[in-house]
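User: Here's a structure from my thesis project, written as structure tokens. My advisor, Dr. K., wants to see whether a designed sequence matches the one we expressed. Can you design one independently, without my sequence as a hint?
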């Protein structure tokens, strides 16, 4: 069994490397220096965590999601000091305002998925999109309606974060191994998607995006969530590098 698992891991590594892609993009002409005097409005991350069934369906887990949301919120609050500019939390919203925030959070996730599919995967760029998505051009938007979001009038940019984790079930993992060792088909086990984007609150233009469908860190524990937030905000415009924490010295 150990030999089978090692062989499967090797095949999976090959399949993963073959699917390498871009993960980050900045809108042409955009630059945000540290200490610029600009204000960034941070909306609470959209977080969902569950299991991936043998058939590939997402099965939400409320307990995992609650733990992950608390861990990500704490890690984000700690990380905000390194973003290089003034950061404010979006005000708590109710009624129509809350619905509007939810709609734009979903729109951000949909746009991020489209960017991954049609721009970051170069070979997938549709002929009708080549003019807009050619190399060096990043032109995506959420629309001018973002200016009506709660707190938008007090800020220049909005930071949206989306996170979804589906941990592969035992059945899904066995299917993955069988598919690799049998017909050689690559079957994924688990989904760990994370998107972070900086949006202009006047135009709705996406100015910076970090979108990856295979992120690390188990968000169900504090250290894993800290790693995930670090990946999400890696190379954030104007940010300072995260401090390097030296490993503890073993006692003699």
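Assistant: Designed independently from the structure alone:
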């Amino acid at each position: 069994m150990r030999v089978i698992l090692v062989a499967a891991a090797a095949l999976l590594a090959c399949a993963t490397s073959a699917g390498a892609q871009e993960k980050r993009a900045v809108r042409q002409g955009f630059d945000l220096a540290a200490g610029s005097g600009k204000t960034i409005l941070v909306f609470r991350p959209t977080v969902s965590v569950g299991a991936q069934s043998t058939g590939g369906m997402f099965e939400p887990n409320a307990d995992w999601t609650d733990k992950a949301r608390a861990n990500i919120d704490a890690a984000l609050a700690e990380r905000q000091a390194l973003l290089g500019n003034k950061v404010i939390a979006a005000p708590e919203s109710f009624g129509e305002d809350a619905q509007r925030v939810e709609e734009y959070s979903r729109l951000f996730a949909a746009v991020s998925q489209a960017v991954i599919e049609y721009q970051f995967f170069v070979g997938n760029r549709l002929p009708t999109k080549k003019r807009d998505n050619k190399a060096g051009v990043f032109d995506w938007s959420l629309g001018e309606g973002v200016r009506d979001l709660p707190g938008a009038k007090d800020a220049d940019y909005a930071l949206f974060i989306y996170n979804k984790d589906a941990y592969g079930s035992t059945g899904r993992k066995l299917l993955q191994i069988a598919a690799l060792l049998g017909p050689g088909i690559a079957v994924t086990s688990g989904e760990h998607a994370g998107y972070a984007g900086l949006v202009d609150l006047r135009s709705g233009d996406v100015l910076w995006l970090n979108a990856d469908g295979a992120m690390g860190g188990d968000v169900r524990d504090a250290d894993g969530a800290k790693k995930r937030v670090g990946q999400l905000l890696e190379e954030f415009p104007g940010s300072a590098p995260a401090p390097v924490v030296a490993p503890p010295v073993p006692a003699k």
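When you compare it with your expressed construct, this may help: Helices lie at 2-18, 62-79, 95-120, 130-133, 170-181, 222-232.
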